[in-house]
Hints:
This protein has 440 residues and is of the alpha/beta class. It has two domains: 53-84 and 334-429, Aspartate Aminotransferase, domain 1, CATH 3.90.1150; 96-331, Aspartate Aminotransferase, domain 2 (3-Layer(aba) Sandwich), CATH 3.40.640. The protein has helices at 23-26, 35-51, 97-110, 125-137, 149-160, 175-184, 196-205, 231-240, 263-267, 295-304, 306-309, 316-331, 333-352, 374-383, 413-430, and strands at residues 5-6, 60-61, 68-72, 79-84, 142-146, 166-170, 188-191, 214-219, 244-248, 275-279, 289-293, 363-367, 386-387, 389-391, 402-406. It has an eight-stranded mixed sheet, sandwiched between helices. Strands 2-3-4-13 form a four-stranded mixed sheet. The longest helix has 20 residues, at 333-352. It is globular, with a radius of gyration of 22 Å. The two termini are 32 Å apart. The structure holds pyridoxal-5'-phosphate.
Amino acid sequence: MLLSKTTNDTVCQEYSGGENFSLRDILLKGKRLNLTERVNYFSGFLNNLNESKQNLCMRLVSSVSDREIEITDPYTGNKRKLLMFGSNNYLGLASHPHVRKEVEKCISSYGVGIGGPPLLNGYTKLHQELEERLANFKHKEAAMIFSTGYGANVGLVTGLINCNDKLLYDEYSHASFCDGIKMANLDSYKFKHNSAEGLAELLKHYSPTKSSDIFVGVEGVYSMDGDIAPLDKIVSLTKKNGAILMIDDAHGTGVMGKTGSGTAEHFGVTDEVDIIMGTFSKTFGVVGGFVCSTKPIIDYLRFFARSYMFSASLPPMVISAVLAGLDVIETEPELREKLQRNVKYTLDGIKRLGISADTQSAIIALRVPETMNIRKAAYKFHKLGIFVNSVEYPAVPLNQQRFRISLMANHTREDIYKLLQSLQVVWAECNSEKIQTKAA
Ligand code: PLP
């Protein structure tokens, strides 16, 4: 099992808690249906959810993205405010005055878009400046910008790793990373989540040769549980075995480390990590992705990552938002400190309620008792004015269902107090509901 090679089926199979699931493998598994039948089957599933007020997907937001948002309630049609505990906008940069001002200035200089990929007409002075600043921020020689974090992972995996190489990766790796593995049909092996021992075992069997490399892929912060990779142990294993280490630091960038550089900085191992990938859709509050590494690797990737070559560049206004976000990260370290205080305050409060929780990041995962109907509990949170994300069966086994609370630097003590009060109500009122046994 430990050494079993992942195939295009198993990269996405045996889902056990990460962020890599597909409804195709859950709802439609084993069913042989034509398109009309599949669509009808899924409509029935959605209708069931809607009728029982259990569908909170795609709530219509009509305000600035901040600690409080305004939405149109899907069940009453009325506008109402919710406290946002489900956003990756950890430092509040999506609505930061400096960021907004810089974007407005940028629109008047550059307009709203660019109309082409970077290798043709999609590379401005701003793109170049951002790549240089990202490389500095991550302490690497060079950086390149992708239009999405998803595209950055797909481009990295398909562009850099060859069929004769081997890829060893954490079983909870993000769907974008797994999709890259499937697209490239790589020789790949999963190890148990955050298990340095599991990786060590694989490395005993696979070593680089003159014509092939061993790549290791992990994340800095895992978004489903908010736990962090043991990078100190992973770095020493990869160095000892001559493997190339790649980190997806989507959720660690701007949050982890003394200067916010990320999870590698948190562990003091930045120089030992070969490739760092990140996104602009979390801390920076916009959209886009990037990869940092040596200059030769980045120069190579620009021509081998198809999601870079064949996809239009981010509009300059998005680039200016990230540049301004970097200004804030560099000049307002108090935001990171405030975020950390908010996380601690929330964790302490949750523990005082007798609910177990822990985290090393800005995400707190709350395991839901098997006796709780998580969809009803999610609707209760919604009614109480709290926006949280739920991770539900059948996407995870019943005993691993959870709520994900994401903290922001600009949450106030009152916001957190309201979250804790609501949590107490939800846990008291929804804990003895009948256990869900079916998807619908
Ligand atoms: N990697 C990780 C760990 C993520 O959590 C995400 C987004 O959820 C991505 C990559 C993809 O990034 P984006 O949403 O910016 O395309």
